[in-house]
TrEMBL record:
<feature type="transmembrane region" description="Helical">
    <location>
        <begin position="38"/>
        <end position="57"/>
    </location>
</feature>
<keyword id="KW-1133">Transmembrane helix</keyword>
<comment type="similarity">
    <text>Belongs to the CPA3 antiporters (TC 2.A.63) subunit F family.</text>
</comment>
<feature type="transmembrane region" description="Helical">
    <location>
        <begin position="63"/>
        <end position="87"/>
    </location>
</feature>
<protein>
    <submittedName>
        <fullName>Multisubunit potassium/proton antiporter, PhaF subunit</fullName>
    </submittedName>
</protein>
<dbReference type="InterPro" id="IPR007208">
    <property type="entry name" value="MrpF/PhaF-like"/>
</dbReference>
<dbReference type="GO" id="GO:0005886">
    <property type="term" value="C:plasma membrane"/>
</dbReference>
<dbReference type="Pfam" id="PF04066">
    <property type="entry name" value="MrpF_PhaF"/>
</dbReference>
<keyword id="KW-0813">Transport</keyword>
<dbReference type="GO" id="GO:0015385">
    <property type="term" value="F:sodium:proton antiporter activity"/>
</dbReference>
<keyword id="KW-1003">Cell membrane</keyword>
<keyword id="KW-0406">Ion transport</keyword>
<keyword id="KW-0472">Membrane</keyword>
<keyword id="KW-0050">Antiport</keyword>
<feature type="transmembrane region" description="Helical">
    <location>
        <begin position="6"/>
        <end position="26"/>
    </location>
</feature>
<keyword id="KW-0812">Transmembrane</keyword>
Amino acid sequence: MNTLILALAITAAQIILGLAMGCAAFRVMRGPRAQDRVLGLDALYLAGMLLLLTYGIQTGRTLFFEGALVIALLGFAGTVAFAKFLMRGEVIE
């Protein structure tokens, strides 16, 4: 019974994260300003990372956890670079 509840909860989380990725992708495409697009991209990589983590929990493979860590690191660096570009107009000083 407990494994069935866990499997259903993980599947429901994956469906909700897929919907969140769709909403974030819509914000990236239709954002009225560049700040909205950066925020949508940030939410998109975060939902993708969490989707990869839930898939790793579901399958029991550790490779997906390492992939999620790489996505988190690259996503954070990308968000910082975009924010710096929007504030100053250049990334590298």
